[in-house]
Every structure is written in structure tokens, then in C-alpha cells.
Amino acid sequence: MSDTTSPVFRRPTASGWLQAWLPRLVLAPSVAIILFFVYGFMLWTFVLSLTSSRMLPSYDFVGFGQYARLMANDRWWVASTNLMIFGALFVLICLVLGAVLAILLDQKIRQEGALRTIYLYPMALSFIVTGVVWKWLLNPQLGIQAMVRSWGFESFRFDWIVDPNMAIYTLVIAAVWQASGFVMALFLAGLRGIDDSIIKAAQLDGASLARIYWRVVMPCLRPVVFSAVMILSHIAIKSFDLVVALTGGGPGYATDLPATFMYTHAFNRAQIGLGSASAMLMLGGVLAILIPYLYSELRSRKHG
Amino acid sequence: MSILRLPSLRRSALSLALMAAATSVHASDVEVLHWWTSGGEARAANVLKELLEAEGYGWEDFAVAGGGGETAMTVLKSRAMSGNPPSAAQIKGPEIQEWGELGLLGDLDEVAEQEGWNDLLPEVIADIMRHDGQYVAVPANVHRVNWLWANPEVLETAGVEMPTTLDELFSAGEAIREAGFVPLAHGGQDWQDATVFESVVLGSQGVDFYRQSLVELDPDALGSEQMVDALETFKRLRELMDEGMPGRDWNIATNMVIEGDAGFQLMGDWAKGEFTAAGLTAGEDYLCAAAPGSEDAFSFNVDSLAMFRVSDDDERSAQQALARLVLEPTFQEAFNLAKGSIPARPDLDMSAFDSCAEQSLADFKRTAEEGGLVPSMSHGMAVRADVQGAIFDVVTNYFNDASMSAEQAAERLVSAAQAASF
User: Fold this and answer.
1) CA B308 – CA B316 distance, rounded (Å)
2) Which is the CATH superfamily of the domain at A74-303?
3) Structure pTM?
4) Chain B residues with CB inside 8 Å of A74's CB?
5) pLDDT, tens digit, for every residue of B243-293?
6) Could you tell me where in chain A the CATH 1.10.3720.10 domains are found?
7) Is the minimum CB–CB distance between A73 and chain B shorter than 8 Å?
8) Is ipTM over 0.90?
């Protein structure tokens, strides 16, 4: 607006120049650093994934040979399938539990603050701590199984962590324990943001409580669900520390996830090429979630 | 490309080093990257430092903690990539060859000739220390991997003797279970599974088959009936283990033997460090014997220091001195007493060592002559890291997956040995 009214301001003064360029100057170093260290290294990883690099990076290009080897690798498929199981269950259970907890806490109960803190605190722990604690709890000779047996239920079995077919579900248990409180907090904030008058109106119309939640409250919470899914899927894809602490990828490699696969091959087994290829596929997985998210965000902004 | 770039980078790093050297009093420091960081190991490394300083050279310590040395290797790779490797690094087994192929290692032939390494070291070990016929590394110790450890009180309560064959191990295990103990302490981690597997292959199929299959990776041997037989025996050992084993660390398993909760453990002689730390005496409070059936075999795991190529003469002479001192009796004795291993040179006085170490040395000499001295697959002495990893995957998956048959596992071993190479 000032541009059109006063031509005086158009004259390039030192302060005007500074005002125009200062933000760019201040931001430039961090942009450059991010471009180099994040996007530059992504590109480098991609280049390495096309080479036969083993112990040290080399530039002997082999096309998509490493990807072909990855596809032929049993362990990669175990890791990918595990991610599907773990990711789907983790996101789903966290959402359901988080929503239920939030709705229950939203009933204007006493000591809500204290209860909320109790549910939220696991999020303050690192996954390493969660992993170690659950490792002990789930150990059949130390934890829950031993405790119930000592109560006299001799035939009680809860040995998922040592059963290769069930061990992946122990990861889900620990991760849900950690993250569902956080989802609850998101939902609670969403619930508080809903205008009371809409609910009152629905009540006046004679809608049942279940119907109000399902048809009125839930649609209002759609953006919250969306953010929660985004955040949880990232946690799921990047899960590394939880696996290392809880199961170490075992029994065998039954609980390997792509992140642990990548680390093992790139750094412990001198297969940088193969590790890079798996890292690129993981990046692909993240992008597959991120791009629709960005797309819908940008589109809604245009409409709004 | 980065490897091609290395020389020029190294030259610039070197000129920097020369400039630094010109101003520094210690004209000839050696920088040593190692992961000897636990109490006893660190003290032993300090002995080496003092020996070196007594000769007027400086020791620049570059210790990177982490038992398996994985962190240290990552640090070493980044240092080498930036053209500034340390003068010496703890590198072992076939990895020495990989670094040698990159042209980064310097030769030690001069000191090797002076000290007569060719006569001092057994041929199998000398081979590992050489690249292209030149000595590039010096061995610090010899660990034996195929050991069986036992708690004598548990054995007595169960009324069994130390087993010498795998069949005896199984029957002794049954008796121990009936007496109310865990027969075989084990930790379900891939390398521990592989350690036990290696001992079973040696114990049930003998040295020649072990060498064919797990060292030379002969596909006929890997897929043979003998391998199927070994795999079946290996899986039967599961019956002797407790269900709390997945993810357990090896020293916790050793502790089960120390505390008298378990009868046996199959583990390399670094386990002795745990027994010693608990104040136990070899031969009295705990027993050691070759893994059942493998008394004529000795699968070794040798720690070594490899020397990186330097062109500064002072630095070179410091490296040569370091290499000489590593093999000298003072360090060999101090270091191996701390590590539970035996000296890399078989000619030393063993009076300070315990009975297990004495037996280890006797077996070492005997197997070196008879041909039973073999590199350990499970500890990175026999095959490249990628092949080793692929074998680990098969072994640990087979061991833990009730539905996988020994035949399937043998087939997968064949493809693991091939698929891993690129």
C-alpha cells in the first residue's frame, strides 16, 4: 500500500535496503546449512545407493543392482512386513485409545489436570527407557508371566517377546503405552475447541450421546485425527531406538524394522551401498505419507 | 572418487602434521585407535603406552568405547575418508585385507624381519597379518572361541562329569535340568547364536568340514548332509536353554553359571574375565574345557593393531617401535592376563597364567602343528563382514524359527555365501 502512495519510499535508502534484505541475510546461513546437510546428504545417499560401496564409499556405479539385491533379501521383507504390522496397529490403537481417554477426561471430572499428566508422562520418556522397562516386564522369567505364575496361575503364559511370531506385537504394546497419552492430549485440545452451542443444539434436537459424538464431535475433530496420523506414522517409520532397547531385533531378526536393517547393513556389515538403497526406500515411504499431507494442506489454504 | 582423492588430502594433512611436528617436542607420536576401554584392558593398554614412552616416543590415545568396536570402526572410516587416519588402529581379520586393498596400510616387514615374526607366529595367524605378502598388522592376543565353561557345584549336584562329546553334553544337560538348574546358559543375540553354532560344527563335523564350509564357503559343503546334521544338533541345544534367553547379554549368561543357576555356557575365553572379576579360581570354582567334540580344534579370534601408511620417517620409526613392543613379552603378559586370552607368541613363560590359559596355549601349539587351528567365523576372522552378516541372519533365524527345517537352513546358507558378494 505504501508503494502506491509515496514514491519517496521507493528510493533505495540504506535502511530500506537493509529492511528488505535483512530477513534473507539472517535466514541464508540456515537455509544453506539445511540444503547441504539435509538435502545434499539425501542426494549423496541416493548416489551411494547406485554404487557397489562396501566398507567405504566408492563410485563404481552398478545401476539399480543394490535395489535388486534388497528385493531378493529375506530380511528386508521381514523388516518391511514388520513395519506394516507395527505401523498400522500402532497408529490405529493409539488413535482409538487416545480418543477414548480424551472423551472420558472431557466429562468435567475432578482432578482432571493430575489425570492428564499421568497419561501424558510416558511421552516424556525416551524410547530407550520405555524399551528397557518393557523388556523386563515382558521377560517371561522376570516380568508379568513370572508374577502371575507366582500368584498360583501356573499355566499362565505371556511369552510374546521370546516367540518370533508374536514379538512384533510387543513393540506395538510398548509404543502404544508411550504415545497414546500424547494423542489423548491432541484430542482433548480438539474437544475443548468445539463450540458448546453446537452440542447444546444437538441435545435440544434430541440426539443421543453416542450420536452426538459420532455425528457432531468427530467430524469437528477431523484435523486433529489428521495431525495425529501424520505424527504417529513418522514415529512408526523412524522407530529404531525402541527396537534396539526392547528386542534388539530378535528373536533372530523377527522384529527387525527398516531403520534397524539400514543401520546394521550400512555400519556394522560394511554394505554401505545396500544400506543406502534401503534408506532411499524408507525416504520413499515417508514421502508417500508427507506428499498427500502437504498437498491437502496447500489446497485447503488456497480454498480458505 | 573420494578414494582417488585421498592421496592429495593426505598430503595436505601430512604437511599440516609436519608443521605441527616441527613445533612440537614429541616429534614422533603414534596415535592409536582402539576399543580397549574396560578396566583391565585400559590398564593393559597403559602398559603399552609406558613401554613406548620409555623409548622416547609419544602415545596419543584414541580410545572409542563400545565392546564390539563398531563405533570405533565408524570413527576410523570417517577419519580415513577425510584423509587423516590414525597411525595405528585396532583392526582384525579379513578387514585388514580390505584396508590393505584400499592402499592405506604401511608395511612392517623391517621390524618383522628383525624380530623374526615368521618363526614366532603360527602360519595361519601370520597370514592374517599380511597383505600382499607384507606384514601390515601385529597380533596382540589369541582368544579361543570353542570353550565350554561349567559350574562344578552344579555338575556335582546333578552327578555329571564335564562332557567331552555332544552326546554327553545332552545327557549331562538332562541330568542338570532334573536337578533343577538351567543346563546351558545362553543369550539370544545373533553373534552368540553363531558362536554356539560354530562350536557345534567343529564338535560334530570336525575341523576339515568347518574349514570347507565356514571359512572357504564351499557351496557343496554348506549344502551338504553334514551341514544339515550340524544344524539339527545345533537346534537341539535349544532344549538345554531357558526361555528367558532372547536378547540376553553374554555376560549375564556367564553370570548364571557363576551364580550356580546354570551348569554350562559355550562362549569364548573373554568369559574368563567375568569369572575372574567374581573372584573365582580356574579349575576349582569354575571349569573350562574345549567345546564338546572339538578338543582337536582351536577356533581363534585375534585382536591386532594395523598400521596406516605414513611417509614421515620419525612417525614411521615410532610405528615400528609400537609394532615391536606389542609382541614383546612385557605387553603380551600384561595384556593377556587382563583379557583372558593367551599371548600371540607361543614361546612365553606361562607361570603367571591360570590353568585354562595353560590348556589354551597347549592346544594352540598342538593344533597349529596338527592343522586344527582355524579362524573363527562368528568373530569376523574367517569371512568378510557382509558374508558373516548373511550367515548370522540364516543361523539366528533358523535357531529361533521352529518352522524352518535344517535342509532349508542349509540351502539358505549356500545362497547367503553367494548373495553377499557383489
Assistant:
1) 10
2) MetI-like (1.10.3720.10)
3) 0.82
4) 393, 397, 412
5) 888 888 888 899 999 999 999 999 998 888 888 888 899 889 999 999 999
6) 74-303
7) yes
8) no
